[in-house]
Amino acid sequence: MDFKNKLTNWYSDNKRSLPWRNTKNPYYIWLSEIILQQTQVKQGLPYYEDFIKQYPTVFDLANASEEEVLKLWQGLGYYSRARNLHTTAKHVAFELDGRFPNNYKDLLKLKGVGDYTASAVASIAFNEVAAVVDGNVYRVLSRYYGIITPINSTDGIKEFKKLASNLIDKEQPATFNQAIMEFGATQCKPKNPNCTICPLNESCMALQKNMIEFLPVKLKKTKVKTRFFNFLVCIDNNKNTLLEKRTSKGIWQNLYQFPLIESNKSLSSEEFHLLNIKDSVLDNLNFDYSLYNIEDIVHKLSHQHLYTKFWIIETKELPKKSIAIKEIKKYPVPVLISSFIDAFNFNDL
């Protein structure tokens, strides 16, 4: 029995029951694929269910505000996905009359949709023969065929796409694509896969050559940047605080945070006292301050490590742009800020 048949037979017996597998509705399939970019099923499933409940059609999602979408997305990370999700929903709803493009080529034109997502939606929703290549597929193919070409190189991307396209079952592309992705997610896992029960073990090159842990090969391209964040948690006698919206491109665009001062190193209380506060929210403000966390809270993003301190700023009265503390959880914020809000008891002050 060949690779293709073994894979689809395995899938028939072992596939997980997931809601987006019970539909051909392109909206649901597209939504699930966007959520599952950079996200495991276990984490993404509750978000998918929340989105479907709150926005059962693409028109509902399109008519929501970006702030509402970001709030519902809060905790999933890579927030550009949420912004692109909302942009595409509006495009489909208002310019395409609610109809998603029914082929790979046109799906690829949608904002936030790349080769993988276009292939997934085209094959699963419209049964187009379009091979998916995601992290799971790279892993399965590189191990089974013993391919050492780096998966994030130009040559690697072309090689694996061509191989996947040659292998795809042209009679049932949706089943094949889901089978190979599921196989990589639950059987041919990144670490410690159980090769003894693998239906492909007799012909797997990586297993034969003892290369399971070395494949797939990935080039290290990105240098991690270290940044030092000082968040100013301002509180006045009227139980108000300050939040600001990050409008510039980069991390957390259009999410809210406490006013921020970025420094070139981790600051002690004495060094914070000596800060130049001109043009910050502290300028012209009489206040007392204390440090919430002596040790930096390290928040790791894909290309950045944020060493963070939260400074509690107490003052008599904040500017008019302040918000009531009791309203703070209505705003979409990064996980780093959300975790602080959950841990810090504002009512004790």
From TrEMBL:
In the UniProt record, the signal sequence range is none
**Keywords from the named record:** 4Fe-4S, DNA damage, DNA repair, Glycosidase, Hydrolase, Iron, Iron-sulfur, Metal-binding
- In this chain the HhH-GPD domain maps to 35-186
UniProt KW Hydrolase keyword:
yes
Co-factor binding comment = Binds 1 [4Fe-4S] cluster.
Does 4Fe-4S show up as a keyword for this record?
Answer: yes
Q: Which CDD domains match?
A: ENDO3c (cd00056), NUDIX_DNA_Glycosylase_C-MutY (cd03431)
Q: What is its EC number?
A: 3.2.2.31
Catalyses which reaction? Hydrolyzes free adenine bases from 7,8-dihydro-8-oxoguanine:adenine mismatched double-stranded DNA, leaving an apurinic site
Q: Which cofactor does it need?
A: [4Fe-4S] cluster
Residue runs in coiled coils:
none
**Gene3D superfamilies found in the cross-reference section:** Helix-hairpin-Helix base-excision DNA repair enzymes (C-terminal), Hypothetical protein, domain 2, Nucleoside Triphosphate Pyrophosphohydrolase
Family matches, as SUPFAM superfamilies = DNA-glycosylase, Nudix
Per the entry, what this protein does is: Adenine glycosylase active on G-A mispairs. MutY also corrects error-prone DNA synthesis past GO lesions which are due to the oxidatively damaged form of guanine: 7,8-dihydro-8-oxoguanine (8-oxo-dGTP).
Q: What family does this belong to? A: Belongs to the Nth/MutY family.
Write down what this protein is called.
Adenine DNA glycosylase
Organism the protein comes from: Winogradskyella marincola
Taxonomic lineage of this organism? Answer: Bacteria, Pseudomonadati, Bacteroidota, Flavobacteriia, Flavobacteriales
